[in-house]
Amino acid sequence: MTATLTIKRAGPLTSIQDDGRFGMLRYGIGASGPMDRAGFAEAGNLAGNGYGAIEFTAAGLEITVTAGSPAVGFAGGAFRVSVNGKAKIWPGAAKLRTGDVLAITPGPSGNYGYLRFDGDVVATPMMGSIATSSRAGIGGLGGQSLRAGDVINLNAKKPQGSAHTTANSSAEVGPIRVTWGLHADLFSNDTRLRFIEGSFIVSPRLDRMGVRLDDKTGVFADAKILSLVSDAIVPGDIQILGDGTPIVLMRDHQPTGGYPRIATVISADLDRFAQLRPGAAVAFVPVTVDHAQRLLRGLRT
């Protein structure tokens, strides 16, 4: 081992992630991977792009280096970070030594942040990935969220590509862009208009599977067709539940869903949406599939 880390404190849903396990939906397993792919990539670039990451949530994280001298990069959201009590710039990087304590506490914005290292996170791959899936209970350390006392080992970095990582974040602000969904035509013209003209609130009921939105103006109060035969879904799909609640499906989404999807958050904006904290207002604006694809290609260049 090149280094060993011990978790001293971990907020809810802290987990080990990599780029994700792709192509497994036919087996009922979603891709998982980082909620903020750009933040994940930035932390890797700062550290030396060792494989895997610790994804932490808004409550923060504290780790002790119990062996070795790893380099660490930290990015995603806007958090406060210190090493042995001395504040560091966020996002940024540091060289750690045995006995050092790295602490991350809540900052002004963001739900997810990342620690990546110059060595590879040691975990047993499941279906080609070490990403923790909260739904399937696989990946990471026994398929579970990280807790105080957990030990993470780092090995020397192995040469490997990272084909799925988005290296650049979108600088866009304002409404979250969507494409109209598979079932948009099941909603009336008036409902679709109110959907794009209205505003929703990010509720506290959010996790890696989905983010529920508070519909204060009752956009979907009169929707009639709210149950369908289940079919495949993708990250970013906006499902309208039986009681009219919108829920945006995220990285650990279920493989199929039986509620209508009025729209899908485009890939270029999904990171930005994932970082919206409870209480934040969110509005949506439709774009074409071609426009969404051009934006995504721009992020990956």
Q: If strands are numbered along the chain, what order do they take across the biggest sheet? A: 21-14-15-18-17-20-13-22
CA-based gyration radius: 20 Å
Query: What class do helices, strands and sheet pairing give?
Result: mainly beta
Approximate strand percentage: 25-35%
Main pleated sheet: 8 strands, mixed
Task: Give helix and strand order, one letter per element, not per position.
Answer: EEHEEEEEEEEEEEHEEEEEEEHEEH
End-to-end gap: 34 Å
What is the count of helical runs? 4
- The overall pLDDT, averaged over residues, is 92
Q: Portion of residues in helices? A: 10-25%
Low-confidence segments, ≥5 residues, pLDDT <50? none
Find the count of extended strands (DSSP E, 2+ residues): 22
Overall outline = elongated
Quick overview of this protein structure:
The chain is mostly beta strands and 301 residues long. The protein has four helices and 22 strands. The protein has helices at 37-47, 189-197, 267-274, 289-299, and strands at 3-10, 15-17, 53-57, 61-68, 71-75, 78-83, 86-88, 92-95, 101-109, 112-117, 119-121, 151-156, 176-180, 200-206, 210-214, 231-232, 237-240, 246-249, 256-257, 261-265, 281-282, 284-286.
List keywords for this structure.
8-stranded mixed beta sheet; mainly beta; 4 helices
